[in-house]
């Protein structure tokens, strides 16, 4: 079992990969690398939340993306960075600056449908970050992921309790991707970046599904009827706030869901297959693997 150490005590290693946060994709990326026995460091604000990752073999660096000195400390001896966070430009550009200063070779940026004129602030911020990374001179790869299947885990308590879930997605279909695939792609590229430099990928799942399709899949896998009911924008935002999402993030998420309803995320491709050499997880597999959460 690895002890948690201050980043000032971490030893250098030219193959070490830094994961910048331990959220959905970040924690899985760190777990994958640790499981393979490859050197990985993960930056977290609260080390208590990284206990399992530390036990799996990841080095834990305590820091805050708002505090450049803590990023610099975590960046020592790093070859590649998986840049994943809430996509606040100042925070992620702090990481880019730190990576330049430390002579990092490559940054894999977890991003979404970045656009300078998007109605969603987060997507405009993603463009600012992507542009800053490209201009930095660092090796880079952009992963503009479709929406995550794991977002359904926020709805798990409601599905377990009421056998139903609501959303303002309407009939919109989404090529949802499993964050386990996003993490696997990020790790693959960070560990062997040569053929991925300067490239943009659009990881998606293998099928595009509406939330009514998702309800049918939940019913099939869980063995009981699960129903989907439509929500208004305000109801959608309130539902996210009620499960702990901060108000301004719930606003952006609800805006994204409105775009889902308009077909904005109705796209799939085989980027996961081509990078990993195996197919992306299906939604059925996701529900099967996480069934206890929904039951
Ligand atoms: N969710 C999706 O469907 C989706 C789809 C495509 C792309 N993306 C992109 O993926 C990225 C991550 O979004 P997400 O929704 O999946 O979130 P997430 O990675 O699950 O969670 C964000 C993480 O950031 C950490 N964090 C927040 N502020 C921090 C700070 N100042 N310093 C250090 N760590 C901090 C949080 O840790 P604490 O526990 O300390 O709060 C949390 O672990 C974004 O760029 C997003 O656009 C998401």
Automatic annotation (TrEMBL):
Domain NmrA-like: 14-260
Pfam families: NmrA
Highest taxon listed in the record's lineage: Bacteria
Gene3D superfamilies: NAD(P)-binding Rossmann-like Domain, UDP-galactose 4-epimerase, domain 1
Protein name: NmrA family NAD(P)-binding protein
Organism: Jatrophihabitans lederbergiae
